[in-house]
Amino acid sequence: MPMTIESIIERLGGAEQAAKLTGVSTEAIRKWRQARAIPPKHWTTVLRATGLSLSDLQPATESDRPEPPMSTSNPIAPADRPKAATAALILADGTILWGCGFGAYSTERALGEICFSTGMTGYQETLTDPSFAGQIITFTFPHIGNTGTTPEDDEATTINARALVVKEDLTAPANWRATESLDAWLKAQNVPGICGIDTRAITRRIREGGPQTAIVAYPADGQFDIAALQAQARAWPGLEGMDLAREVTCAKPYAWSEGVWQWPHGTAPLPAKRHKVVAVDYGAKRNILRCLASAGCDVTVVPATTTAEEILALDPAGVFLSNGPGDPAATASYAVPAIRGVLEAGKPLFGICLGHQLLALALGAKTYKLARGHRGANQPVKDLETGKVEITSQNHGFAVDDKSLPADVRATHTSLFDGSNEGIATSRYPAFSVQYHPEASPGPSDSHYLFRRFVDLIDTTTKTA
């Protein structure tokens, strides 16, 4: 039976030494792993360096290949830990998946709801997005790390995801904008990751069985207390009922004055400031604030717990409700009274993501947890008023219940994946919201019109006041 590619690479002294001996890059070694085969032109070198026979290098047939760990419902026993494994992904159902750790060694914080993101790019923006607080991200795209990291792409001051799961070894950065590798960036922010995991199988499990808790264990001493880790995963209560906006919101109000990024000059010049807008930070992404500023808004950001009286004291022409993490029903305890106060004052209002859900709750609708969340940059949404389809970026595990919308609130957008609500507007107040992220660019700019719509709404309301 042929040897596994991992065993051969290990005999060569690891990926870097294998690349050096055969005169290729570590990216080529990664492709060996992906193809489960070594190109014949390298066989002579490999045979000479390892002492193996030619039969050892023959590509494995399907019958030779072991089933991946996720193909069985039985958890892998601790005794089955592979020799090279330095990390484990433990699910609440008892499943154990071994891999190799990277980034920082794990702490108790590497525990949360495991989810998957389908975006092929933007891993840095995803990891820093405050909406991912309390979650472990599985990237379905296998090659993560190839653009490195740069402070310009951060959506918040810190990484908000608790850990990440990827299929392949981290790719070395090959991007002129990169200032640091993904591995070094994760280490600096004390966030662990695990590679060598069958991410497609995890995605199928979440898709078919719904979300569950997981923990990434990458201990500094290499010791795994599997029973304790499984118990820890089972004990975590889940995102339902969690108010995480308090954890990621700003500590005090501040002004925002940076526009959208424009290649190759950095941020674009800002237009004249037309209207003062208060942005309530439930976990706001920086690019949302950039888009507001680039639309002509004079933006002041305030903490999530700011009351209606405090917002109105700033005399805004409009109010923006940001994205954020957690259960909207939990955040509603303090957010809904503030939103209702703003609505009754007649201020134009625009909400995104969690802000959309909170506006719906303030208008009398209900929210619920999705069986499988929407996370990624390829989510089709239909504008029910124009028939236009937008390719959107999304990150949410809760949704607004269309059936609970009051008579004066209408659905404006719908998901073409599962038919869930993606937008609302009300005839009673100058207010509208969307579930997706119009500041992102998967389309690449299908949804940027919503920021102009908000400014136009402020213009109209101001003229008629």
Topology:
Layout: H1 5-11, H2 15-22, H3 26-35, H4 43-50, H5 54-57, E1 87-91, E2 96-103, E3 111-117, H6 123-128, E4 135-139, E5 163-165, H7 182-188, E6 192-195, H8 199-209, E7 212-217, H9 226-235, H10 245-248, E8 254-256, E9 261-262, E10 266-267, E11 275-281, H11 286-294, E12 297-303, H12 308-313, E13 318-321, H13 328-344, E14 349-352, H14 354-362, E15 367-383, E16 389-400, E17 409-415, E18 421-426, E19 431-434, H15 449-464
Parallel strand pairs: 3-4, 4-5, 5-6, 11-12, 11-13, 13-14, 14-19
Antiparallel strand pairs: 1-2, 1-7, 2-6, 3-7, 8-12, 9-10, 15-16, 15-17, 17-18, 18-19
Please name the defining characteristics of this protein:
single chain, 465 residues, alpha/beta, 10-stranded mixed β-sheet, 7-stranded mixed beta barrel, 15 helices, 19 strands, elongated
Explain this structure to me?
- By secondary structure, this protein is an alpha/beta fold.
- The chain contains 15 helices and 19 strands.
- The chain has helices at about 5-10, 15-20, 25-35, 45-50, 55, 125-130, 180-190, 200-210, 225-235, 245-250, 285-295, 310-315, 330-345, 355-360, 450-465, and strands at about 85-90, 95-105, 110-115, 135-140, 165, 190-195, 210-215, 255, 260, 265, 275-280, 295-305, 320, 350, 365-385, 390-400, 410-415, 420-425, 430-435.
- It has a 10-stranded mixed beta sheet with strand order 8-12-11-13-14-19-18-17-15-16, sandwiched between helices. Strands 1-2-6-5-4-3-7 form a 7-stranded mixed barrel.
- Strand 3, helix 6 and strand 4 (about 135-140) form a beta-alpha-beta unit.
- It is elongated, with a radius of gyration of 24 Å.
- About 45% of the residues are buried.
